[in-house]
Amino acid sequence: MLALWPFFLLQLVLAFPQKRGNDPQEKYLVSSLPGLYDNIAKSDIPLMFAGQLELYPENDTHYFFWKYVDHNKIPENNKRTMFWFNGGPGCSSMDGALLEAGPFRVNKDEKVVYNKGSWHKATDIVFVDQPSGTGFSYGEDYSHTLDQIGWNFVTFLDRYYKVFPEDLGNDIYLAGESYAGQYIPYVAKHILERNKRVGDKEPQYNLKSLMIGNGYVSPNEQGLSYVPFLYQAGVLNEKNPLWGRILAQQEKCQKIVNHIDANWDDAAINDYEADNTECEKLLSMALDSTLDLEAPDSERCYNMYDYSKKDSYPQCGSNWPYELLFVTPFLRQKEVMAQLNLIKQKQWHECTSSVSSHLRERESAPSVHLLPKLLEEVPIMFFNGNLDIICNYIGTENFIGKLKWGGQKGFTEKQADWIHNGETAGYIKMERNLTFVNVFNSSHMVPYDLPEISRALIDLATGNYDLKEQEDTDQKQKKAFVTYPLGQRNGKQPEPEDSDKTSPITKPAPVDEEPDKTAPITKPAPVDEAPTGAPKAPQASASAEPLPESPAATSSAITRLIQLFVICILIWGIYVLYASYKSRPSSIIKTGPSGKKKNVQWADQLRRFQEDDEEFQQQKSQGFFSKTINKWKGTDPQGSYAPPGQYVENIELGETRATQDSEVADFVIDSDEEEGHSQPSHQV
């Protein structure tokens, strides 16, 4: 009877299965990546989830997401979820995850290394490939309008919160860059409409702030800014042989913008506004006119995303950032695709031209028209790297200057300096729920150039800053927004080295000089206000209370101890049964005349029993605990580490399951590997 106890214990365990078997998050857990445990400290490894989340089974639409959660949250990082989009249209948000705001960068060995300025330290962050066909996302149908994109993302949120219900009460921050300046306002519009539609019947989606970096928001107005920007930067001047042609094209663009301004309140979507062809020609003309044929092949053209750099022609920035050479093969590794839990493994492309070609922009009003109404309900921040040409800060300030919101047009107050960690990081304009930040010494991809400084944009958006008065060069008092390194709001703030650093510069520096430092920012509503009201820009506030620790880790440890105990008992029981079996006669046929028993066995039986005896003797020589340890070592060959955290009790460690792109619209970087596109075009 003693030998049957292990089987009773086994039945007891099976009668009370662990929760993780029914946990919808389990299949999205990411437990390993190339270089994760070799290059990154255990304390810096975030809790990660990734996969292709089904939106519409009828057309097989799946959106890929990659979520990062910090195990050691600072008090300010309390109940926040940020959703990040890159632009294109059709460019993957894995650019944002692995080149900008995520916790990892990819090195030349195609392994991850740590990004000390990761935004996941200030907010849970989810990078989403959308719309369908972008990056690892897929489906049978493409999105054709911006409203459709907004609607589909709300559907994504519906599905996301079923998998992560603990995030449902979190404040939502929508962030991204470039063509996300079109995506984000439309997504915000549909979230707010959804909240009104469901009322009290379902939980509200707590939209708190929009953060748009180098956004493509008012296409023609921003196209009109190329020549003034490049002139102030010293890239273009009257001596250029094509100067006359450039000015003639500038005049054509100006007439279109004047027509748009005169008919701004038209409810209809006008072709002359939806068509940005004439104004966008200015960028190509400017880049062509500054071509240096005597320079090395890799330095003949200005980088349209950072004019302080050069690139080959006609790429003019499409080869940048250079780390993309590492990201692409990294995401195409079978091991990585398996660890990211891909249902459908597809070859990753940074940008997919078919997404852009199916998006009929003339059926959607530019997102700038949505801003006044959105600002009544949610704060919006525009931040610009001051070295970017394609979505430069002058264009952003120009469309804001014409925008009427909160009863007034444009900003009415002077800009203020942004001081981060004792140094001038840019300048800010903040008024009536709208913030503009000009970030000095940064490009089209601000977090790529300045990871730690860019993370402080979240502090500006959430009110986690100080307001100080300081003297300018004319000995007049002026306001400054002061932010600090992560978690050091109440720490000592070093003063700027000299007063010259705190005076904002309103134009880009010539390429042979140190670039000027200019940039505005927006501030979101306080956390305790209703998301569908008309929140005011938050004031600087104290840090939030620290989050209570979850008992998950303790529960998991107890569960594993019980499992270990049961396994040990089972092994012992098997040992007892086997020993008992070996101690009896192996085969008794009959008793002969001599009174002796005859033992009859086949030769192959003898060999088998001999092998059993040898195996048993080998096990016996190992000892009970050695055998238990050896049994316990039977783990997943791909690695079974999962970082500790509140999810750990629901983690089942095991082998990751894996199963085995008309005319392209302007402003898309086509992958060199896509068919039918030998020349790269522009990405926003």
UniProtKB/TrEMBL annotation:
GO CC annotations on file: trans-Golgi network
GO biological process terms held by the UniProt record: apoptotic process; proteolysis
Oxidoreductase listed as a keyword: no
Record's subcellular location: Golgi apparatus, trans-Golgi network membrane
GO molecular function: serine-type carboxypeptidase activity
Major location category of this protein: Golgi
EC number: 3.4.16.-
Domain of life: Eukaryota
SUPFAM superfamilies: alpha/beta-Hydrolases
Gene3D superfamilies: alpha/beta hydrolase
Class of this enzyme: hydrolase
The reaction(s) this protein catalyses: Preferential release of a C-terminal arginine or lysine residue
Biased composition (Basic and acidic residues): 492-501
Stretches with biased composition (Low complexity): 537-551
Topology term for the membrane: Single-pass type I membrane protein
Region: Disordered, residue numbers: 482-551
Signal peptide: 1-15
Listed transmembrane segments: 561-581
InterPro entries given in the database record: AB_hydrolase_fold, Peptidase_S10, Ser_caboxypep_his_AS, Ser_caboxypep_ser_AS
Keyword set, alphabetical order: Apoptosis, Carboxypeptidase, Glycoprotein, Golgi apparatus, Hydrolase, Membrane, Protease, Signal, Transmembrane, Transmembrane helix
Family to which this protein belongs: Belongs to the peptidase S10 family.
Protein name as it appears in the record: Carboxypeptidase
Organism: Suhomyces tanzawaensis NRRL Y-17324
